């Protein structure tokens, strides 16, 4: 049990949204100590100054000197904190990173928990983490390229050891930074119906990842494949990163923060009609399920300037966001194919819906993605 000075300085801060754990920081005798309560006391409650049995001490995160009122907590990836105000029996702490500032009344034996405003995701931090993870996954893909073994998993559906290696690299990078988040990777969801992959309501933020989108291209050394990383939170995609290692192109976006290509702003095209547009689509590996799309291909090809199938749904959406493609439709997508790209397109000024024009849902197979200007026209062709 940690023993405190008679009147220690405390700061109590709520942990990452949407969890309701509490982190306690204690400075006494020039030493910072930190621990986490796994109980869920209500804001405004009184908590013993030392962790009680029913609070279930999780672990001591950091114990070390506090120089000049500053220190660093590393295990929770919170960055640097600073005591910005102290008066007897009260402390206020600024903590950069993913926690809020909080104020607590303290006594030698008890702490009154602060009433904190609701916590939100730090989207720029999540975006930065997704970029780094995408690069790590791509490094794995490139290291495997030319030396992996490929096999058939059904007609034209090639898989390789590189998929799993890339996914493990991405997963380790993201969950190492956000240990309370969930992870949904393509390789972990094989064999499940698409609805079964949907995070439950109220779940922590979930990273939705395709570690290698465009597998057949990769297997045949066609330079049209990528790592796709989306973040699903509060019932919607909020971060999207797609990295093409062969062209060195990093497409990135977070809700409310715009979309970029290699750190430069990108926008959808200004094409106003299908007849002037380059339209893309994707086909399932199963031939029997291609027939519906082949008929739509016939109809759209009679109207569009040109059609493309590049073998990577994620790159197709990234190209719509970048203004290269003007539209995209498909009937056989999975969440890891479109979660990241949907954020890219909407933040770049485009529009994403279901194929029939209803609300977009990455946990349904169909999607219609455009620059917004040709959305209704392309939707009519797809659904006629």
CATH architecture of the largest domain: 2-Layer Sandwich
Tell me the Rg in angstroms.
Answer: 25 Å
Ranges where pLDDT stays below 50 over 5 or more residues in a row are 1-21, 38-44, 49-109, 113-119, 153-157
> In CATH, what is the homologous superfamily of the largest domain?
Fructose-1,6-Bisphosphatase, subunit A, domain 1
What structural category do the secondary elements indicate?
Answer: alpha+beta
What's the CATH class of the largest domain, please? Alpha Beta
- Report how far apart the termini are: 70 Å
User: How many beta-strand elements?
Assistant: 24
Q: Please state how the strands of the largest beta sheet are arranged side by side.
A: 13-14-15-16-17-18-19
Share in helix: 10-25%
CATH third-tier fold name of the largest domain: Fructose-1,6-Bisphosphatase, Chain A, domain 1
Oligomer: single chain
- The percentage of residues in β strands lies in 25-35%
Shape: globular
Number of helices: 7
The overall average pLDDT, rounded, is: 76
As for the number of domains, it is 2
The largest sheet is:
7 strands, mixed
């Amino acid at each position: 049990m940690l023993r405190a000075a008679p009147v220690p300085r405390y700061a109590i801060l709520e942990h990452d949204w949407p969890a309701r754990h509490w982190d306690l920081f204690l400075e006494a005798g020039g030493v910072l100590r930190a621990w986490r309560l796994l109980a869920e006391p209500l804001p405004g409650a009184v908590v013993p100054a030392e962790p009680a049995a029913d609070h279930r001490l999780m672990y001591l995160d950091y114990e070390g000197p506090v120089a000049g009122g500053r220190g660093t907590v590393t295990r929770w990836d919170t960055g640097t904190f600073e005591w910005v105000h102290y008066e007897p029996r009260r402390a206020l702490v600024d903590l950069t990173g993913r926690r809020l500032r909080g104020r607590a009344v303290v006594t030698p034996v008890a702490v009154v928990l602060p009433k904190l405003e609701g916590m939100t995701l730090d989207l720029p931090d999540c975006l930065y983490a997704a970029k780094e993870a995408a690069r790590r996954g791509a490094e794995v893909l490139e290291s495997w390229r030319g030396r992996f073994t490929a096999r058939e998993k059904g007609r034209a559906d090639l898989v390789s050891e590189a998929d799993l290696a890339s996914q493990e690299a991405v997963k380790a990078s993201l969950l190492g930074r956000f240990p309370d988040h969930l992870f949904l990777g393509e390789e972990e969801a094989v064999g499940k119906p698409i609805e079964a992959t949907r995070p439950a309501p109220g779940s922590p933020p979930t990273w939705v990842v395709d570690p290698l989108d465009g597998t057949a291209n990769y297997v045949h050394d066609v330079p049209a494949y990528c790592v796709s990383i989306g973040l699903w939170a509060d019932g919607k995609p909020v971060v999207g990163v797609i990295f093409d290692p062969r062209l060195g192109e990093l497409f990135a976006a977070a809700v409310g923060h715009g979309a970029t290509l290699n750190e430069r702003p990108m926008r959808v095209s200004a094409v106003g009609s299908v007849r002037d547009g380059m339209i893309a689509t994707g086909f399932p590996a199963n031939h029997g399920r291609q027939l519906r799309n082949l008929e739509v291909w016939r109809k759209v090809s009679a109207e569009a300037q040109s059609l493309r199938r590049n073998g990577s749904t994620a790159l197709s959406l990234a190209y719509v966001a970048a203004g290269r493609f003007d539209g995209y439709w498909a009937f056989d997508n999975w969440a890891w194919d479109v979660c990241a790209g949907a954020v890219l397109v909407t933040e770049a000024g485009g529009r994403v819906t279901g194929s029939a024009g209803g609300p977009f849902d990455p946990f349904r197979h169909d999607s219609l993605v455009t620059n917004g200007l040709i959305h209704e026209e392309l939707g009519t062709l797809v659904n006629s």
